[in-house]
Amino acid sequence: MGETTKRILVAIPWIIVVIAIIVVGGPWFAAALAVFGCLGLREFFLMAEDYRPFQIPAYLSLVGIVASAWLGTEFNVLMFLALPFLLIFFGAARRKDRTGVTGSVAVTVLGIYWIGLALSHAVLLRELPDHGAALVVDVLVGTFACDTGAYAVGRMFGAHKFAPNLSPNKTIEGLIGGFLIGMLGVWCAGLYQDWLSGADALILGAAVAAVAPIGDLFESMIKRDLDTKDTGRLFGPHGGLLDRIDAVLFTIVVGYYVSVALVY
To answer: Where do the structural domains in the chain lie, given as residue ranges?
Structure first.
């Protein structure tokens, strides 16, 4: 069985699960994202275990931030962003050996905000009236179309390295191809949504495709610093959860604000 076939077979059931969660929405969507968020935090903390992150406060904070997005508004999410500092302080105060505690706090806060803040925006986007589910799908389509397009164009035409110190395989040609294909992906999805004009779909697609490589490079920077190739094996040959949603953690935030500006 070829590597590409293996990747497809692993991806199909996960795509079905994601679509089902988006369609159901409500508390099930928020709960699923909280679970995924905790799994992502676990992957990150295993990579950064030398920093001794405060794991229980981090999990509680992430769940609280995601829940606040479902139960409230952006204001409530902002309120809960203060929660991690309180919980982390209690965890640090209980630790007998507080050597390197500043690094422990920093890594813990990074994990919470990197993953939790993005997932709270996914909940906010899904909870938008009438079109929330479709907009989540649009952002995901644009993100993965950009990623796939960048990979394909880079393999075929890539000659000029884009960020060799962060991700040596990325090329300028792949970056341009991914941007155009990602933008086109959202535009094509918008053809089936009469409430989203072609121009608005292109704007949303451009925003998503512009930010997606940054999310990818951000995770590559973290993995390179922590000397890690894959964040885990949850997706088999695809790597860990963070390997699959690194771009989404950035595009879902931008997608929410662009969607609010264009549609609402």
So the answer is: 1-127, 130-264
